[in-house]
Amino acid sequence: MGDGPSQSALSSFGAGLPEAYLIFRSNGEIAYINPRCESLLGALHADLEGLSIFSLIPEQDGPVLRVALSQMASGRGDISIEARLRVRDGSYGQFAWHACQSLSGGEIHVLLRPASELKRIQNWLFDGEARHRRLVDNLKDHCFLYAHNPQGMFTFVSASITNLLGYTPEEFIRNYDRLFSENHVNDAARECAQLSVAGIKQETYEVALRHKHGEVRWFEISEVPIFDALGKVEAVEGMAHDITARKQAEQRAGAAQEALESSEERFRLLVQHSSDVIIILDSALQIMYISPAIEANTGFDTRDWMEQNPLHLVHPDDRENLVALLQEVYEHPHSSMRAEYRTPHRSGSWVYWESIACNLLHEPSVHGLVLNCRNITERKQAEDALAQLAQSDPLTGVFNRRCLLDTAQQEVQRALRYPTPISVLMLDLDHFKQVNDTYGHTAGDDSLCAVAEVCLRILRDVDIFGRLGGEEFVAVLPETTLEGAEDAAERLRKAIAEVEIESQKGAFRLSVSIGVSCFHEGDKNFKEILGRADEALYQAKEGGRNRVVVHARDRVAGEA
User: Are 282 and 257 in contact (CB under 8 A)?
Assistant: First the structure.
């Protein structure tokens, strides 16, 4: 495998980012820029690829970048600096750089934002006061990824932990027990973590951790148990999102409202109730104000939003819930509620938001419903990816053992409630050990993937198919009689026999033996049906392989 993702993977990932994004190698050679970066710099990826990053910055800014890269190489983690870059007309624009090093150490990944844009937002909100600029700078998502084993020992923490808690990943792993702030929140967090280790997927929960300098920081935890081939939890993977600002804002909200005066009152309230994007709606739910950060998050500028009903931009599946929430907040002064929903990105994708809606209609300085919106698209994508890993066989992509057995049991329960036929096929590759020994384990893996692909192509969308373990697969056929299952098994056997696998030691063909069973009166659970399919499979193996055998008990029951 290569040292990094393919060009097509980079293009797909980079095109979906609202931020300008570039990659250069450790020697300074530019490897990739996304469309947003092309727009900012006025140059195409093809024009810049292979050039040195130092050729795009003025000579006097070179030492700043070299020092930052040296710090990163020495283990300081992510860096944030300001440095100039050459743009279309040959002049230099000032940019904020947020950079991190790839896991292999061979590439530097950089998110760019025009410094002028940040300053314009800060000056507009707070009349250029430095104390208010710092508040705006902190309106960002911060998170770190982690993994721990079933004993609770951390095995991985991403480098972003250093920016959030002051510890290197190694220090965190070594000292994490001492980082927990003692309170009832963490007692509940430990219970949730124990459920994850037990294999039960939890909703997000909150935990308080101590920074290296002593202060307490709050995190929202999303985690997923990872199962081995036997269905046991072998690890727990998760994401911790820094919600310290939100927690502090919630705690200060009541007292702060009475202390604020005149025009400053409006802006402080907006900051205290916001994450990245601030929206103010009037009593008719029309936009009165939307912060400039909406452009970086969606690709649309403020005019695009101001000129239409904001609810028309919400995903149809989310619109009803959001309207109900806003109506509830509208009817209760000073109340606040939280919602998740999607709005479109200019690229055609959807942006996921977490919003806190607060009724400040009775505040003279605001007189509106305030929505403080945080872009959680990245978190949602990570959660979806973790969920996919938790239920899929990593080699073939079909259901893994645990997911297969759980889903099949649900079908059996349905068949018990509403008497309908259900059949089971158990497939086993013939002479699979000889395939590995003769053609190599790579050819063996290719064989398993080929069988999975054939079965998914021939089986119906309603059928359940997964890898039980090793070279064994199981197909559950809802609303299918024994006769129909036997026909389906024969079609699978013939289709697999036509598959030719290429290997370095020559091409070869596959064959499978298949055992067939069905649900009938007296069965209490899926394992009973699967057991008969396994017995029939054994008979197919004993009878010479490459054949379909129906369990004798099921055959008699079917004929009766």
Answer: no
